[in-house]
Amino acid sequence: MYWIKFTLGAIILSYSCATASNDTKLFEFGPKQLHRFDNIGDQEIFHWDFDFPNKYLLRFSGTVNQTGGGFSVHCADTVVHLLVRKGALPIPNPLQTIVPENTFVQSISLQSNNTFTISQSQELFYDVIIDPSDNKTAGHYFASVFLPNQEETIDVAGLTKECKYYAKIQVYNQTGDSGTTDVTPATGNTTKLIRRENGLFNVQFNSDSATFNASSDTQQLFEWEILPVKDSGGIMRITVESKPSEDTTSYLVEACVNQLEYIASDNCNSGQLLTLNGTSGGERDTWHFPYPIAGPWYLTTTFKCHGNTSNNCQAEVDLRVSVGSCIDGCHSNKGQGSCGLYRTDEILFLSCSCKVGWRGIACNDGTEALSYGEQLLQTLLLTLSNFMFLPCVALAIYRKFYTEALVYFFVAFMSSFYHACDQPGAAVYCIMKYETLQFSDFLSSVSAIWFTLVAVAKPPQRIESWLHVAGCLGFAVGVSYDRFSVWTVVIPGVIGVVMVIAAWGLQCHNRHACYPSKKKIFLSYIPGLACAGTGLALYAFVETSDNYYIVHSLWHILMATAVLFLLPIGPKYKEGQSYNTNKIDLQRQPFALEPSDNMYHSYSDTNLHVD
């Protein structure tokens, strides 16, 4: 439900390049980085205060910067949404989501709801003029700026520079007629509710008596004060509970809420009418006003009876007014979202962060929400796809690569439980802290690539041990520094491939023949590298938030398949033979510079297998 009323005069919107010579700059804010809109918490807020009524010009502009490593790209022009509201934070709804029942998203005092463009090639200006036609331009103002919501690929840090969009605002005082702000006097028998603060966004407004007697021939008037900034980011709630007399079988409680003046409930066109239909058993209901306007609020109640058996038509009515947390707790008990505290400069405000397709101011709009079955399917795909590393564990043990087998098992275990914990909805299970699982998943993935390439290179045992330890230490630093950077995977992969090529070159030099064999290249290494390359391409260029569970599951499968192709056959020792054999092992010694004359003959009678 929307409560729409514009209280100020003409709003003039235009693009321009300069201000008039008699304009005086009052404030300048920004630039602030903008974010794509997914929930109200993604908006960037500008706040200022006009001490006296006058004619003001608000000038908005934007810039584009490229940050991070990687290749430079052209940043596309983008449309920016802008809302300006007096007395309260704007409540943007560009996705046109459903508003919950008993929730009133006010558009009263909304000064602007438009868009402007930010371009990398030139700086454009967008003006909003506030005209004091009704002498009410003084007060607190809030501007909301954000980028449109759209499907994006999951950015892989380090591949290309990131385009970041910024906005700033300049406020000018223009020549205009000043006036005094109108104040609506309180009239009638008024009960002023007393403010009591219990903490941040935990405010109650109470009267001397918790309840009042309502009858069909009386009206009750109430007044309370919403503070600017301090209460602006919370949710105002009005709760009405009634207990009718014994002779009253059916009744109606009506309350007219208005931010300007007292209005009777039977003439509540400019306010918001709250109705409570009840029976002899009593009723209770609550209404929500997100980001209430600062200033005095007024409420008028009337009581009407239907079907009473006597003239004793009355009830005890309990009125409770408060400023509190998110509406219905963002339905966190159902896994639809969570309530978060957001900050932009000195402004604090509450907003729901919705999950698994739920949207709206209270995560109540399930138009695009995933069912529990769909959530479970995504979780199972992301977790069970890691079971492809279990054949890698078995193969490594069979070929006596016991260290590599441990790494592959670590990948399967940590990645499975990380993705089980990483799900946003109800199908989630965490065996330890999320950060621990995420770090372990990234570290094990990079380590699996490195250990496989070291095994393919087949260095001597001492060098192999050094490479294992050096790799793990370096990966721990890299994953801690930026685990999402593509270079965390690419750099170890490139170093490992160079190491393999160097080892094969030395093998060719020692053997005086091509190594490895063509059969091995075509049946093992080419398929393995194709799987690894395809997986890396999907990971870097194809993944989006919508297809993540499919593409990332394919990444798991392709990388495990690559290991099955690339893992070498390895040496098979006689039973009881030490790993550190005194004989020269071509499988473990590709770096030998001078082959002995009888090297190949010495291996003819052994059980060592050379592929």
Automatic annotation (TrEMBL):
Places the protein is found: Cell membrane
Taxonomy, superkingdom: Eukaryota
Signal peptide residues on this chain, from the entry's feature table: 1-20
Recorded topology in the membrane: Multi-pass membrane protein
Entry-linked InterPro entries: NGX6/PGAP6/MYMK (IPR021910)
Assigned keywords, A-Z: Cell membrane, Membrane, Signal, Transmembrane, Transmembrane helix
PROSITE patterns reported in the protein's UniProt record: PROKAR_LIPOPROTEIN
Pfam families associated with the record: DUF3522
Predominant subcellular localization, coarse grouping: membrane
GO cellular component, one term: plasma membrane
TM spans (from-to): 376-398, 405-425, 487-509, 521-542, 548-567
Entry's family note: Belongs to the TMEM8 family.
Protein name from the UniProt record: Transmembrane protein 8B-like
